[in-house]
Please model this.
Amino acid sequence: MRTKITASWIVGHANGRHSLIRDGEIVFEGNRIVHVGAKFEGPVDRTIDTAGKLVAPGFIDTHVHSGHRASHRLITDTGRPMYYGQPFLEISVPKEGKVVKGDPRYLKHGDAGSEAAFQLNALFTVAELIRNGVTTFIEYGSQLRVQDALLAEVERLGSRAYLAPGYDCGRWVGDEQGRLKRVRNDRLGEEGLKVALQWIAAHDGAAGGRIRGILVPREVETSSVEVLRRTVRAADELKLPMATHAAYSVIEFYEVVKEHMMTPIELLDSIGMLRPTLNIGHGNFVADNPNLNYSVARDLELMGKSGATISHCPINIMRRARVLDNWQKYADAGVNMSIGSDTYPRDMIMNMRTASYLGKIMSHTYFAATSGDVFEAATLGGAKSVGRDDLGRLSPGALADIIIIDLDGRGSLRYGPVRDPVKSVVECGVGDDVDTVIVDGKVIMEGGIIPGVDFASIRAAAQAAGEEVWATLQDWDPLGRTHEEACPWCYAMDQ
Ligand SMILES: [Zn+2]
Model:
């Protein structure tokens, strides 16, 4: 089956970068693109007319923590200063001996209601990503059953994902006084790596190749050097990409320096882990960051020389008063920039805009972090992070992962006059503007509708799950706070 898309604007590809094509056509046959450019003269079975819209490669979200993220809503405009703005310490570190309630990512096998909760989280995640034009996503190390549920939804709804259970050598907990405490268990990490490898052996290549494996030792400070070494060995042997949180938190940076007498990035370099197919989340607290007051700054140079990737999640870090310092320095050093949504909203267009604006401010020039740069990070950067040259671009031979973006702001005046469609999307767009999503040559969303997905019922189920998360905070919060104490309402509640 051969399909032709006629378009006012196409983001094409030439000489390793995107290009712009006006009044062009794309043709794909089966799951591969066979033509991008001027008029296609051959016969086709179907034509999709996209007059007035932008046809682009699907987005690649390189940093997804699955679920509805209800717990994250408890730290808006607030939090504990001792965590230096690191969200996961706020919302996923329970009092010692307790578990975080209401989030199925922390449920154990056999817990009541868990099946439905896993399923809701997976459906919410995959549906939200598709709705926002994400054709490939990388899940950042949730546990086994979360991955099983995601796999089922990706298979059913037709998108593409890099999945596998993550692992670590122990976690952070809150002690009896609510202070941070690290619980270490190196064997847990070694066993976790085995589980990940088994999962990958069973599922890599599933759903016609749309599911692929990735090795995720979750955080550098909660991984033993031995587990990291074994991860590198497995990645080399099996040609797998890797992802880990590193240079992402003030506490993690100093913990690693204290334990290893190296920065997190120097530690990764010392075991040969730095490479384009290492996705470093978020890589913003590097030794070069003046806020860390570290006197020997080699991190950016090491990351750049190796071409390592960062998953930059601008909305999520900015909300916690943190920033990437800065886009231009990273790009000049040779770091592969990719973009992730991390928490919520899973809106790659808003994330591109935020990356661009913060990039300009922090680089002190409006020539930095251009619309073209951030659009490439959201597509080609992500593809490079998983070692793929058949994703993130619209060119003959690439997989037909294509999105069609509405440029009329869903019937509003939001866009105004459109001159350059990519600049307009980055400046004026939102994820909802994605109208149609094609993955592997198959239309999986049309007119904003994903067959078999009812947004209203998912929203209602997520709201109910959120109410439970908020109501049970006191059971596990290291300070024993209610949600109203931990996160006061924006105004005094007036009955
Ligand atoms: Zn993360």
User: Anything to note?
Assistant: The pocket of zinc ion is lined by residues 63, 65, 140, 245, 281, 342 (CB under 6 Å). The chain has a mean pLDDT of 96. The radius of gyration is 22 Å.
